[in-house]
Amino acid sequence: MLAWAATVSEGRDSTAKPTPRVEPKRAAGAIGASHQRHDWVVAAVISVLEMHPGPMHAREVHRAVEAMMGRAVRWASVKACLAVNVAGTALRFVRVARGQYRLAG
User: SS3 sequence, the chain?
Assistant: First the structure.
């Protein structure tokens, strides 16, 4: 047995009560309508980029999406939408420069 393990086991009190197990918190219900589905975010980003004539910074796209939807939208959702739709066979966006995007085609 390792030296530190021996000292730990010797230091335990056999009459001590075991530590109660803490159950993880469960969600009260389904995420439902409050969760921004990926397709909503994609549609919002496309709409914002269609209204803007030139490339936009990702943060500008995020602010415009929030203004258009009238509620908070996670930055990570917008950034992921832009990043994922730049590559692949069905390009939706073109990365013009670092952090700048426009619609493809």
Answer: CCHHHHHHHHHCCCCCCCCCCCCCCCCCCCCHHHCCCHHHHHHHHHHHHHHCCCCEEHHHHHHHHHHHHCCCCCHHHHHHHHHHCCCCCCCCEEEEECCEEEECC
Digit-coded pLDDT (tens) for 69-96: 999 999 999 999 999 888 878 889 999 9
Q: Report whether CATH 3.90.470.20 matches the domain 36-105.
A: no
Q: Rounded to an integer, what distance in angstroms lies between the CA atom of residue 100 and that of residue 84? A: 14
* Among candidate residues 19, 93, 22, the one with its CA nearest the CA of residue 56: 93
- Write down the domain spans for the chain: 36-105
User: What is the pTM for the complete model shown?
Assistant: 0.64
CA nearest 73: which of 54, 48, 55? 48
